[in-house]
């Protein structure tokens, strides 16, 4: 059964956040809130976590996983960013965007798009997520908590606990965080491409 933690959205209990981070380092799969939907997250190098996320969401190997980063300095360790892209991403973060970029060698091979060798990265604007990332000290490997054959992500912590009780280890609940996923911007090609219109304003990238 999944452990359930109800945390304050603006002042999350430090002991709880520390405990959740320790569990992630030990291989736990967590459902956690972000500034756009709940997400599934695990430690960066956890092959078991990746397999469990793929199983829960019924994903194939073309799915772009996202590295949820605490800040721009951390993001820069995992993706290749030229000056123009740097300025564009810097102006839009933290926020409800996922950026697809060529990965560096710091990214485990199993996370990469099989042909493009790219990965998704984002810096969320959410107090609880930021507290967890600060405690973890590295990006959280993540995917939107959208179940197969459902049009909208789950938004209530109690419902996530109820429905995923036997497939996740932890549910971190800080209240409703909406159903609109991130806006996805692909910087890996010759032209900037808006892959998905979501919570982030796309006009700055068009």
UniProtKB/TrEMBL annotation:
Molecular function via GO: L-threonylcarbamoyladenylate synthase
The keyword Nucleotidyltransferase is annotated on this UniProt entry: yes
Domain spans labelled YrdC-like: 14-200
Annotated keywords: Nucleotidyltransferase, Transferase
EC number of this enzyme: 2.7.7.87
Signal peptide: none
Superkingdom field: Bacteria
Identification of the protein by name: L-threonylcarbamoyladenylate synthase
Native species: Streptomyces argenteolus
Organism lineage string: Bacteria, Bacillati, Actinomycetota, Actinomycetes, Kitasatosporales
